[in-house]
Amino acid sequence: MKIALIQMSCGENPGANLKKAVSQIKKAAQRGAKVICLEELFRTPYFCKTKNEKNFDLAETIPGPTTEMLEPLAKDLKAVIVASLFEKTKKSVYHNTAVVIDADGKLLGKYRKMHIPDDPGFYEKFYFAPGDLGFKSFKTRYARIGVLICWDQWFPEAARLTMLAGAEILFYPTAIGWKKNRPAQARSYHGAWETVQRGHAIASGVYVAAANRVGAEGKFEYWGRSFVADPFGEVVGRAGGKQDEILIVDCDLRKVEKTRREWTFLRDRRIDAYQGITSR
Amino acid sequence: MKIALIQMSCGENPGANLKKAVSQIKKAAQRGAKVICLEELFRTPYFCKTKNEKNFDLAETIPGPTTEMLEPLAKDLKAVIVASLFEKTKKSVYHNTAVVIDADGKLLGKYRKMHIPDDPGFYEKFYFAPGDLGFKSFKTRYARIGVLICWDQWFPEAARLTMLAGAEILFYPTAIGWKKNRPAQARSYHGAWETVQRGHAIASGVYVAAANRVGAEGKFEYWGRSFVADPFGEVVGRAGGKQDEILIVDCDLRKVEKTRREWTFLRDRRIDAYQGITSR
Predict the structure, then answer these.
(1) In B, which residues are within 8 Å of A157 by CB distance?
(2) Domain spans of chain A?
(3) Which of A65, A162, B183, B222 is most exposed by smallest CB count within 10 Å?
């Protein structure tokens, strides 16, 4: 079962970004991908690098224009699409949301980013209300998948709960990078980012697939390097750090159960002793 | 603040192993180590590779002969000692336990292994009742430390809860290895073992220090490679895979707080949404 991660740079024009994404999705499907995941907020530049009220104009409803474009595409290609959108609700609440569209073109559901960062250049708390839908899995035609978004990557609780909800693959639409000319910290940032996610794969016996933004936007550079780790944490595919790329990886879903039987962590979880996780 | 991990091979004679451990502890202290951690069940061969009722004879009480030997040693060396022991309670319940002895020679407390494996060659469920003391930290003279034991390494919940209890360094006395002549799987086993623990360091902003057994015992070979990862998951010291070694690493405890301020994961944990962790 092939999955595809669409790693791309984004320009100022949402229409052009969407067109590019559609084109890349088609190419991925032509190459046999059955589940195709876009990066975080692929329709726009990563606007959270500043706080600007005008950026709220970039939001859309779900369902809305983007899902209306992607649904028939998914049906046509017989491929599942995971798309990250800037969501505006009817009550004018804004969320960093991902939708899952099944291979028959139906909107299976959405996940709203639960952990919201507020770091230099990542001012998401200004824009997004924390997710209110919890951690979920989606039973698509080809696999039971979970979706988590960027900052969620650093929280083992998010990965664990999404696996417990049934996910065999965790998709992470992402927009992570660093300021240009910051070589010293570079390696440790990227290394930690990949390592903590590989840890989730190992601890829960799931595939982890992170689709990251690439390219320069203002003072920032998104580091690409989208990757897939297998259920024992081995990186089985990794994109480059500079360019658009469609990363296609063949996932053997039998490996999920096989790994969980060989490394029987789930049997031994001390659910009687984990209550403290819900406190600070 | 220097810490030491005592990686050693063990023979059949508990007295001789203890003598060797004491000698290595003294050397570590001479080299400036302030917290010294022994590997899992260092007094004996890793007896859980078979199920044998006679092995229960190897257990001891806590306090008991080993703590009585290590307490004055800790006081004399002004060093904290973390020692993994096969504990027998007054009610004849057996635990895989670690004690923390402070630098003044006082027994600060104990941790009983919470996650008990039952893998080929690791038949611990036959010997040990699951821990009943929960996840803890110990305020020693030099640092607030947590202790977890071997199989606990694979559980992000254990690391998180021990950090939440206050730990700045997580010590993992360990006895992990593989069957001899198993080169194909070797790399992925060791890689996953180190990676998942580095993930704990990253997610919680703690030092992680794993002291592993080394050397051949029957059909098994323990893979050594004791290591320390810093609070952003970088391996800052790693022992070899074949021989006895005292791994000494200088830990800058200011890095714990510094890392947590730079990478503000703890601020954003969704404690309102983690209840599901306590279910299967």
Answers:
(1) 156, 160, 269-270, 274, 277
(2) 2-264
(3) B183
